[in-house]
Amino acid sequence: MKGSPVGIFDSGVGGTSIWKEIHQLMPNENTIYLADSKNAPYGEKSEKEILQLSIKNTQVLLEKGCKIIVVACNTATTNAIDFLRANFEVPFIGIEPAIKPAALQSRSKTVGVLATKGTLTSKLFHSTSENHARGITIIEREGTGLVPLIEQGKTGSEEVEVLLRQYLRPMLDQGIDYLVLGCTHYPYLIPVLKKMLPDTVQIIDSGQAVARQTKAILQKNDMLNTSNLPGKHQFYTNGDSQIMKSFLKDVGVDFSVETKSF
Ligand code: DGL
Question: I need a labelling partner for 34 at 20 to 30 A (CA). Which of 16, 183, 229, 254 fits?
Answer without folding.
Answer: 229
